[in-house]
Amino acid sequence: MTINIALLGFGTVASGIPFLLKENGEKITAQAGTDIQIAKFLVRDDAEKQALLAQGHQYEFVTDITAILNDDTIDIVIELMGRIEPAKTFITQALQAKKHVVTANKDLLAVHGSDLLKVATDNGVVLYYEAAVTGGIPILRTLANSYTADKITKILGVVNGTSNFMMTKMVDEGWTYDEALAEASRLGYAESDPTNDVDGIDAAYKIVILSQFAFGMTIKFEDVRHEGIRNITPEDVKLAQKLGFVIKLVGEIVERPSGIYAEVVPTFLPKNHQLATVNGVMNAVFVESIGINEAMFYGPGAGQKPTATSVVADVIELAKGIDKGEVLPAFNTFTRETVYATKEDLVDKYYFAIETEDKAGQLLHLAELFHAENVSFEQVFQENIGDDRASIAIISHKMDLNQFDSLVEKISNLEGFTLRNTIKVI
Amino acid sequence: MTINIALLGFGTVASGIPFLLKENGEKITAQAGTDIQIAKFLVRDDAEKQALLAQGHQYEFVTDITAILNDDTIDIVIELMGRIEPAKTFITQALQAKKHVVTANKDLLAVHGSDLLKVATDNGVVLYYEAAVTGGIPILRTLANSYTADKITKILGVVNGTSNFMMTKMVDEGWTYDEALAEASRLGYAESDPTNDVDGIDAAYKIVILSQFAFGMTIKFEDVRHEGIRNITPEDVKLAQKLGFVIKLVGEIVERPSGIYAEVVPTFLPKNHQLATVNGVMNAVFVESIGINEAMFYGPGAGQKPTATSVVADVIELAKGIDKGEVLPAFNTFTRETVYATKEDLVDKYYFAIETEDKAGQLLHLAELFHAENVSFEQVFQENIGDDRASIAIISHKMDLNQFDSLVEKISNLEGFTLRNTIKVI
């Protein structure tokens, strides 16, 4: 038997797939129990087709999706075009044509995943997407297959390589945000418009998908609070170090008694936290649960070969089942009603960076404010920063979101005090 | 439908299973597609049975394995007795009675795994054992299901919690081996005879099993060179730190052009290596491959709930298939002929700890020896240690095992020089 696949798009990741099928062909065939063969490649237009043929690529390139949809020999369609359209339409049409689909398209899955999964179910086929979250880390299949007996209580993820590269430079080298962005651009890690990476949007997409696998709940993308790394200053980084922390952009999903909550925000991580050593463009997902307790899954978040490896692993899973004539299981079978946590139930420590006149009694004013909110200090660091000004950094004990909002308002309104930044502390 | 399971043994891990089935019952039933129920518990004798009943446990305790073997309502047998016998006999009998078996017994699997797997195949049932390697880290299923498209070139594992706890104390606190062992014993991490943990035997068992999943080859236990942590001195730890490393007991499996090689040895890890921050009783498996490149899987290596979680995840996988009437796939389907690497193909850096008289020309003697073997220095650190004696620590560049053996012999025979220790450097 041979399983025929069609690829949509001939970009970086897509061109890694023929590499793997050739380089690891023997193992892949043995694992799948069948040959896997690329039947067709969908490219943009005739110009791209001619260019690829001229480069010596010997695939059947087509420019019209119907050539794939109507080809009954094709079992699996792999979408690697990215963005929303035409990927969404093509995936929908492929599912309707009873073809299984593999994709790495996190933007699409985070926003339209539920709709696409319904189309798949209605047509008796499945949609797999291991590569959509942290490209090379096999986290989704692990959550789906190895956490079946466990109850996850918290996910912490460093899931955006570009921003993590920048934060690593800001922490290790003391660079400013702008210096780190310039280097990320120079190295090709940051796009010309870096918004999705530096503002936490890309990470929030991944958090939506992780919430489905880890908690069985579908948090809407617009319900994931996201705040990027633009406002992190070298002062924050330095103060973090003095207080025993490193700053990273962390996506967090937590289940509390009242429900679930997710956000992507700059976060103080204790230096000895396993996530604190995840540096450069590497990604990691830290999982807290009642059974396994603490585990971390670390690896490349992107890149041609890591992403292609995850895509082909999905294809092999599908091929195994097709070969045996089995009904293929959905990629994720864990679903519960989505219930959001209340603000009272969201309890964290925070870092407050405050500037004020360097004179007696200033810290007392702050202590009174915190005391009135029933929140105590865990660490305080004060220093003179010149011009008779003092910098006061506070690591608080735990407070709920209402207390936090109230404290932020009160400090902001305190005459002679500037609240320069607040950052969540793990 | 209800899947009935029988448990052999009522130790720490076994008693974690009823906890999970109760605490996560709803999720487990949903994931398995069926109820999972404990039908019988095998205990040692009537005294243990009476004691457990007196404690209020309301299971059907049996003292004779035939009560389980002859019970046609039992689909899955879970062996959690440990050691070789009677576990080996009971597992064999259960497989012959056409019952699927789940076990966490690494000693047994490392030595008799191939035989047991053959019995399973011959009887049309399967043997699953996720919990046998690094209890709470779902590494075996990940290697089996997510590395299907990849080719693994190296595995590095910190896979023994007791010795890692001790090495962490020796590195972070400067403790001696004996001090660390005393604390590990006090905390219940080390058994009264700590041989298996501190001499790398337990880790070697796990390395055998990992070699099967990662490389498709079965390295014999006696072919895994193992050397423990007894000979690591505070001087070695201090020198490692000066040279930019931490020492850990690391299991390594590497595939070279000529074949495969595995060993468990104390290892210098660069401070920024992801494994270097795996501390205390925690475990991690670092995987290098041509597709994903570098990934690490971190978590608890033992413990009641982590291990029970992995066991129940295996049970759920089995229950899913039984419920659907499918032929269950073997736990690991990746097999190749086992070929061992040649000594010439095993190339590593090494740390040499040497003591000699503190006088002119001593380093020159060593430099000449290394030069004669065509091996160069990467780092050298020399200091006077009193009594006109000098300590010389050398980190070499890469050499093969023949060069290493030759250098060790030559330095040992060099008059006036003592070769205090050699340690592999990653």
TrEMBL record, chains A, B:
Per UniProt, where does L-homoserine bind? E191
Q: Which reaction does it catalyse?
A: L-homoserine + NADP(+) = L-aspartate 4-semialdehyde + NADPH + H(+)
* Aspartate/homoserine dehydrogenase NAD-binding domain ranges (all copies): 9-130
Where are the bilayer-spanning segments? none
What's the top EC group for this one?
oxidoreductase
Q: Which residues form the active site?
A: K206 (proton donor)
Gene3D superfamilies given in the database record:
3.30.70.260, Dihydrodipicolinate Reductase, domain 2, NAD(P)-binding Rossmann-like Domain
Keyword Repressor carried by entry: no
Q: Which UniProt keywords apply?
A: Amino-acid biosynthesis, Methionine biosynthesis, NADP, Oxidoreductase, Sodium, Threonine biosynthesis
Question: Pathway it acts in?
Answer: Amino-acid biosynthesis; L-threonine biosynthesis; L-threonine from L-aspartate: step 3/5; Amino-acid biosynthesis; L-methionine biosynthesis via de novo pathway; L-homoserine from L-aspartate: step 3/3
Q: Record-annotated residues binding NADPH?
A: K106
Swiss-Prot/TrEMBL GO biological process terms: methionine biosynthetic process; threonine biosynthetic process
Determine if Oxidoreductase is one of this entry's keywords: yes
The protein's Enzyme Commission number: 1.1.1.3
Report the protein name in the record.
Homoserine dehydrogenase
* Natural source organism: Pseudolactococcus laudensis
